[in-house]
Amino acid sequence: MDKSKNNTDTLILASGEGLTYNCGAMNSIFKADDNETSKKYSISKWRPEPNSEGP
Questions:
Q1: Distance between CA atoms of residues 55 and 46, nearest Å
Q2: Maximum alpha-carbon separation in the chain
Q3: Three-state DSSP state, 41
């Protein structure tokens, strides 16, 4: 992900693109965070493994 974007740019990411983190039984992909939103919010997708326990 290009971290040089500012808050006036349009950010388009394909499926699976973004900052990916493996958190054990859950995976996350951050589509936009601090640098893309001027530290105002983040957009992320969290996917738990099948049959894993919830929070």
A1: 12
A2: 41
A3: coil
- Please calculate the CA angle 43-29-4 and round it to the nearest 5 degrees: 65
Measured in residues, the chain has a length of: 55
Give the model confidence (pLDDT) of 29-51 as tens digits.
Answer: 999 888 888 888 889 998 888 88
Do the beta carbons of residue 40 and residue 30 sit within 8 Å?
no
Contact 45, 29 (CB under 8 A): yes
pTM (global) more than 0.70: no
| CA pair distance 5, 38, nearest whole angstrom | 10
With tokens 């983040």, the residue in question is: 42
The answer to whether 45 and 32 are in contact (CB under 8 A) is: no
